Amino acid sequence: MIKWRQWWANLPFSKATLIPISTVSVLMLALFYGGHWFDASAAFVYQREWILAGEWWRLLTGALVHHDQPHLWLNILGLWLWWLLFIEHLSCWRDWCWLPVLLLSSTIAMLWLDPTTLVYAGFSGALYGLYAWGALADTFIRRWSGTAIGVGLLVKCGYDTLYLPSSSDIAVMAHWGGISAGIGIALLRQFLLQLSHKQKRHSAEQTR
Predict the structure, then answer these.
(1) 124-140 and 99-113 helices cross at what angle (nearest 10)?
(2) Is the pTM of this model over 0.85?
(3) Distance CA 139, CA 171 (A)
């Protein structure tokens, strides 16, 4: 019980960490349950034919709408679980500016690599990217639980790619697109962090 309380007390709860994830969750809920006032599915869902015809916003919004309640709530649960596992990597609201990159990477991967999928909706591709990002960020600080999550993610996607039938509803290419972007973001952030540390050390040495 003491360890649990210490872990909970050490979580960096703040507006900078709670507002972004709450906003994303509310947005997905609003797009799904707002169907009483407008048909979000028709307006925002990924439709390959309409995207190629010029409705490019669907590449972004298609990852925020869902076809059914189980899919919606599973993705929201996965988002909050990711937030709890990797919260220390999200100390600033600016970290959430990478989310559109993950959203787009998942749907663009579908567009380029899976021409047979004509209709798609769901946050899972971006969610895979968030987990890949957090897992690699954990690896950089030698937190091997995150590494295990990352390995499991790759094994799961590899299995889906090799063994799932073509008729499966799982958007494998969207998941790979998200993972690729998540790894890229983690590598870029680590590079920028190391560069910042070198600059600080250089400035400190000059002031001596």
Answers:
(1) 120
(2) yes
(3) 27
Please, are residues 86 and 129 in contact by the beta-carbon 8 Å criterion? no
The token pair that represents 82 in the structure block: 């990711």
For residues 128 and 175, the answer to whether their CB atoms sit within 8 Å is yes
**Range 153-171 burial, b when 16+ CB lie within 10 A, else e:** bbeebeebeeeeeeeeeeb
Average pLDDT along the chain, 208 residues, taken 10 residues at a time: 53 72 94 76 89 94 92 96 87 84 96 92 95 96 93 95 81 95 95 83 67
Cα distance between residue 167 and residue 63, in whole Å: 20
Backbone angles phi, psi at 120, to 5 degrees: -150, 145
